[in-house]
Structure formats: structure tokens, C-alpha cells
Amino acid sequence: MSDYTETERPFDLQSPNAPEEEPKAVTASYSQWNLIWRRFKKHKAGVVGGYVVIFLYIAVFMGEFLAPHGISNRYYKVVHCPPQRIHFISDEGLHLRPFVYGIKGSLDRRTGIKQYTEDSTKKYPIYLFSRGDKYEFYGLFTTDIHLFGTGKGNPMFLLGTDRFGRDMFSRIIVGGRISLTIGLLAVTLSLTLGSIFGVISGFYGGTVDHIIQRMIELIFAFPSIPILMALSAVLPPEWPSHLVFMGIVTVLALVGWGGLAREIRGKTLSIRESDFVMAARVCGAKDGRILFRHLLPSMFSHIIVIATLAIPGFILGESTLSFLGLGIKPPMTSWGLLLSDAMNIHSLSLYPWLLIPGVCIIIAVLAFNFLGDGLRDAADPYSSR
User: Fold this and answer.
1) Does residue 151 come out as left (phi exceeding 0), alpha (psi in the -120 to 50 range) or beta?
2) Which domains does the chain possess?
3) Cβ-count burial of 23 within 10 angstroms (0-12 exposed, 13-18 middle, 19+ buried)?
4) Which pLDDT does position 30 carry in this prediction?
5) pTM of the complete model
């Protein structure tokens, strides 16, 4: 006989009458970066902008490989040739491999303008990993392999040619490297200056704050385009291309750091009396350690957002200088320099494909703006997303 009565019998876990255990609450802890990433993924426009930015940088990084022709190659027989069409169907029927027709040129005696038509007697198949013009891949090795092409010397101008008969598609891809890299380097230098002066201005206040803010107001007092033109005109014309490149980066950074400094100053003013700053002071930390080991790292996500939103301005600044003839000089090329070929109504009416670099600028600026908007909303802890 059991030693327990019915009322004294302990509950059997397998018994249906046994009380159920209360479910334990599952908690998860996320770092600040994880929270920002989770909120950013919900911002559809920001995600699309991020993918476009990544695609652009991959494309310009692989510029010579993606370009079917060398950027300096001149085809004088096809000057200002319109974009060629890719065909899959010919008089012989359907072709699995795409191809382009040859080009026939004829001079219009009435207008004096050369006209181009397709020569259906010549077909040039488009091959992947085709051989073409030789190029150096960032000084690592020399090769003549391109992602696609019709073979060395064969015509294929998907976006037409310019006034010297150079392939616009190849020049746009390689030229985008200069425009996008200048924006990235200029914002890095500008953000460094803006972060240092902004955090010092907001942390110390008083006389230091007044001096820095008056200096920024002096920069803002002059129109940006005349300042850029004046500083660019100071660059010696005999400088080689790489020094001109660094000079343009420096000029853009010197003009653009003021607005970034003010945003960093405002953020510093809002957190300089925070508990972690006061704790660092109580522990005897010096001002330099508080500034660069506590304040700046705490604003890192905000700084990234500022940088992302500032890059389009620097891209437009370089494009403006190159468009006016004060920026990048040949043999280097950029989107602004390519756009300078479409400065007059005559060129625009006859050769509208010369405006394609402007379309690339618009796409890049919009992509960075969408990405910056998404990061700004994700970094805001009070965002509704």
C-alpha cells in the first residue's frame, strides 16, 4: 500500500492534473549597431540606394575590365557616332549570341554633318571575356581581357562616341572612378576637420566656440562656386594629373568642412553633460581623452550619416569644376569633364547622348541621398520605423 493518501500524493509531472509551468520570457539584447541595422532594413528607399552605391563602386573599381575599349583610343572615322543597338535577329533568323552591325558613315552635303547607318553586311558577335586593348590593372598586372567585346579593333559603341571618336561607355565607367573617389576622399578629409573643430567648439564653448563659429561664418559668407573657382585657379597648370586630383580633393574639403563642424558641434552640446562624460571627469580623464575616446566614438553613427549625406555635394562640386574647365584635366577623365562636351545647344540638339554622364551624376546623387536618409532614420532612436 502506498505511504501517501490521495490528498498527500505529490503531483506527477506526467499527470494531466499537474500544474503547468509558467513560460519563461525570452529576452534578446542588441548592440547599437544591430538596432541601427534592423531599422535600416525596413527603409526600402535606403536599402535600394545602398545597393546602387555598392554597384557603382564595384563597376568603377573594375572600370578597365568592364570597358570594351581604352579610354584614350580615338576612332576618327566614327566621330560623334550615335549609340549602337544590340541585335538578336538578322535576315538569317534568330541568333542566340548578341551582335552589333558595322557602321557606315556618309557626309550630308546640305548640313555638313556626318550621318551614320548600320552596315548589315558586317556582323560582330559579342563575346564574354573578349580580348581587346591592353591595360594595367592598378599596376598589378597587364592584360587585354575585357568582360565583353567584339574583338580588338572591331566597332562597338553602346553609348556612342565623342568629338574625338572615343567610346563614351568606356569613358563613363572609368570617369566614374574619379568622380566617386573624389567625393569619398573629400568627405573623409572634410569630416576629419569638421569632427575635430566641431567637437572642440561644442566641448569648450566660450571664446574657443566663438572663434571657430566666426571662422565658419566667414566661409559661408562667400558663394561656394566662386570660392571653388578661385582655389582651383591657384593650382599650377603644370601639375601632373595625380597632383591635380589631390588638389581638387583638398579644395573641396576646405570649402565643405564648415557645415559638418556645425552639426558635430550641435551633437556635442547635447551630450557633453551626459553621465559617462561626468564619470570620465570624476575619474581624472584629461580633456583630450574625453574628446577622442568618449565623445567622438559615441557620435560615430551620427558622423556616418553626416558623411553619407555630404558625399553628393562633393560629387556635384567636382562635376561643376570639371564642367567649367577648372577641375580634372586630360588624360584623366570624370563625369563632369565628360559633361563639358555638351555645353552648347548645338551639341545637345545633334548629339544628345553626350548628356549620359549627367544621368550618371543624378543616379549617384539620388542613391547617396536615399542611403543617407535611411541611415539617418535608422540612427535616430525616436524614429517611428
Assistant:
1) left
2) 69-169 (no CATH), 174-337 (1.10.3720.10)
3) exposed
4) 62
5) 0.80
